[in-house]
Amino acid sequence: MKWRLKSDAHIPVIAGGFYIHPTEDRLFGHKELAYMAGYPVDYKWEGPASSIGSQIARGVMPPVAEYVARIIKNSIEDKTKAKEELKIVDYRKVPEQEALL
After folding, report:
1. Residues 20 and 51 occupy one common structural domain
2. What is the DSSP letter of 7?
3. If pLDDT is split at 50, 70 and 90, which confidence band does 101 have?
4. What sign does the CA torsion over 8, 6, 43, 27 have?
5. Does residue 22 share a domain with residue 39?
6. Which sign does the torsion angle of CA 79, 85, 91, 97 carry?
7. Who's near 52: CB < 8 A, 6+ residues apart?
8. Domain C-terminal end among 58, 77, 93
9. Is 56 in contact with 39 (CB distance < 8 Å)?
10. Is the domain of 9 the same as that of 36?
11. Closest residue by Cα to residue 61 from 88, 81, 87, 43
12. Burial 36-52 (b: 16+ CB within 10 A, else e)
């Protein structure tokens, strides 16, 4: 199934099928889909090119993994802390590295 994405709306979960560029008559490439899912631009994929789409769809998005790791780290460091502080992150910028453990 194919879906044309809207340029003024949020991107849905990349789950399967083909996603059509909102302004051009073409499908998104693997690098574009990976970037929209939060993977770094220079991320190296393993395996044949035909498996990259399913790796993107089935993988844990890096922003989600970072959030879960931060919650685990904070719960280990401060057992009295009951809530996670929200942090606004601009994924278009290079992320700041922080020691997770």
Report:
1. yes
2. T
3. very low
4. negative
5. yes
6. negative
7. 30, 34, 45
8. 58
9. yes
10. yes
11. 43
12. bbbbeeeeebeeeeeeb
Domain count, the chain: 2
Q: How far is Cα of residue 92 from the mean position of the Cα atoms in its chain?
A: 11
Do 46 and 11 lie in one domain? The reply is: yes
- Which tokens sit at 13? 């979960």
Query: Could you list the residue range(s) of the whole structural domain that residue 69 is in?
Result: 60-101
Strand (E) or helix (H) holding 81: none
pLDDT digits (tens, 9 = 90+) for 32-52: 888 888 898 898 999 998 888
Contact 65, 95 (CB under 8 A): no
The Cβ-side half-sphere exposure at 49, using a 13 Å CA radius, reads: 3
> Are 11 and 52 contained in the same domain?
yes
Verify that 83 and 38 share a domain, yes or no.
no
pTM equals 0.61
